[in-house]
Amino acid sequence: MRSRFFVLICMSFFLLISCVSSQKFKAEQAKNEDLNQSYVQVQQTLKECSVSKDEALHKNADLQKENEHLKEQVAYLKENNTQALRQLQELSVLSASQAESIKKSLDNIGSKDLYIQELQSAVSRRDSLNLTLVMNLKGVIGNLNDEDINIKIDKGVVYIDISDKLLFQSGKYEVTPQAKTVLGKVAQVLKNQPDMEYMVEGHTDNVPYRSGVLLDNWDLSVKRATAVVRILQNEYELDPARLMAAGRSEYNPITDNATAESRAINRRTRIVILPQLDQFFKLLEPKS
Description:
alpha+beta; CATH 3.30.1330.60; 7 helices; 5 strands
């Protein structure tokens, strides 16, 4: 009986020990699991800290670059400030007479505007006079063939182009009687323009020319221009002080010289009607 009781007590003791060990084991397991989770969290935190460290290093490098850039800007601004102070010092030595001169220049701006308006008005008057002059010339010339005489305005200047077949015989520089009649009609209008000057230009084609004392087309163009000038002066009493003669030879053609017709067009005498130069420069003088 006792032995059974003893065995029963031993078995109960072992069962009790077994139950306590199982509970302790489970508790240790739970603790170990918590430690594992803590370890994982620590590892994650450490990884995040490593990334944050790299970002901080990059940010620090960027801040250093920005700081260097700001230093350069400060140096640039200091240099500009020094230059500005130097310029102000230079301006401060501006004499009273110079300052007064600047003031007068500013005051003259209004008068310059008025002067420009007067010039524009003068140009308008000139254009009106030129148009009247052209109409008068065409009126006295009549219905002469436009191939023989052409009157036009170009860039504010009146041109009278007279073909050489009307003025001269081929290779000659003596004015024909028919041409003298035409020049007389032109002179009739020009004499009524006291503020004008007249340039007579001789033009040839590009065919080489040599005859007697004339060496080339230069000589021929000049001789023809002076022949017309002498007619206007001696026979129609134009003031010689208002006349000019010029030879342009073959170097200012209207068209090419490829055909006989085009060469005939280039052979011409041109009368250029200009305002007298002293009148022109007087117009440009500032008003007092």
